[in-house]
Amino acid sequence: xxxxxxxxLPASNLFxxxxxxxxxxxxxxxxxxxxLMVALGLHLLNARIKRKNCxxxxxxxxxxxxxxxxxxxxxxxxxxxxGWPLLVCILLHTVFTVKTLQxxxxxxxxxxxxQAGLTTNPTNAKIHFTIANNLAQKxxxxxxxxxxxxxxxxxxxxxxxxxLGLVLVNMxxxxxxxxxxxxxxxxxxxxxxAHTNYGHxxxxxxxxxxAVHHYAQAxxxxxxxxxxxxNQGLCLKQIGNYTAAEETWRLCLQYHPTHGDxxxxxxxxxxxxxxxxxxxxxxxxxxxxxxxxxxGAFRSAxxxxxxxxxxxxxxxxxxxxxxxxxDAELVIRQAISSVSSQSAxxxxxxxxxxxxxxxxxxxxxxxxxxxxxxxxxxxxxRAVSQLPGxxx
Length: 392
What we know:
Largest sheet: 2 strands, antiparallel
Structural class: mainly alpha
Strand content: under 5%
Strand order of the largest sheet: 1-2
Shape: elongated
């Protein structure tokens, strides 16, 4: 009885409300108590019937106590049980075995589990939310209906508003999506999830300043989140706050040193801005200490993103601009052999390096190969035309 009642009270909502995650786990203990009570009840019933129906063998005429274990019975027995208590026990085992098998079918996958829950409790917002999440992962638009049903049943369901907003973004309905995110934040202004998704939405809408604000709010709940820091850096770069963008990406790399995209963006920023945040002229790269920082960041990016062609090409351009032509040739040849064998731009830059080294015949060969890969490549066409005796 103690095992049945004591664990049940915290999950009963009599004293304070608890969520289903806690409740369903606490309810396992009352189940144990209930099973023990049933077993004890069957044992007592079996003992009483056994005492009544079996022939009691008396040790002597003055015996004051009956030894049940020495009884014999006309009923067949199983684990010490006989008669109708045994039949009840078998019936219980059979019924609950069948129920377990049926429930196992419900748990076969999320679709069946959701439908089973919906059949049992169609007004449960959590069930509609779970079904909607499963449908959304499969890309099925009907998930919107279940999110809206969950919200109808529980208007304060912040998570449902957030996920509805995400679905609406993917369905190219930005106005409704923004309304959903705004509602989620009105219900829970400190929601890290809501600020994260609203920040992504603003970034996609090119509303950089708003995106920075929402990412900053989300980071209060998710300190050091590399995705948030990386995207915040992108937005800061777009609004021209290069110093803050660099600091943000460096912070991102402190928490996640293997973030190849962050290394790449940091390298490009160092390579295109002077100390203090001023940009270099278009088509140029930094020199000196900033160039060394950029080169180091590019090489770190290659360590974690070796198949990203843009990193190889950017590093080649930086090295070429700083006069490190042999290093630039080595890098671009490695790029061509590993990830850029069919890239016209890669062959153009190899030709560019060869031209700067005075190897015009070699340069012309690579420029023309770039044009064979992409006849519309304007840089390669212009380079061929500027070669001695060149003909584009």
